[in-house]
Design goal:
Layout: H1 2-14, H2 16-39, H3 49-77, H4 83-112, H5 117-149, H6 152-179
Amino acid sequence: MRSIIKLYQRVLTKYPLRTQAVQAGILMALGDEIAQNLIERKTFRELDYMRTVQFACIGFCIAGPATRTWYGILDRYIGSKGGIIVLKKVCCDQLLFAPTFIFVLLSVIGILQGNDVEHLKAKLQNEYSDILRNNYKVWPMVQLCNFYFVPLQYQVLVVQSIALLWNTYISYKTSIKRQE
């Protein structure tokens, strides 16, 4: 186990953006599989593997790179240590990044589901505010702890690990209308 941790640290140091993109892709795909298996109770034959691949791609191409870049920006322009700095980072994260990221995430999921513009608008109107509200129930406390206790290079890993459950929720929530 120790060698795996050392390998991860080495790869993270040498390729931070790529490493965090890969881990986000894996964890988003896993969140979708949890949604399909445990919440939707799909059998092995009913599993939508394309949906899982799409979630992996979203994690790899959007979630991992976006969160890593965002945390770097926060660290660079706001700082990294101290209670007030952490509060500023959480406020920026939840008031600027979260609403934008959720909008982008829902839009990309809708596009990958094959929705036209009108259906995409309707889906956003129906799902966005509920998901954003639920975001505010979970993520401010997670980010307080993350920004206060966790070094920058591990913040995406912490968020993506917690996001495993969040991604399960997003996967299930965005697939409800598609199943009907």
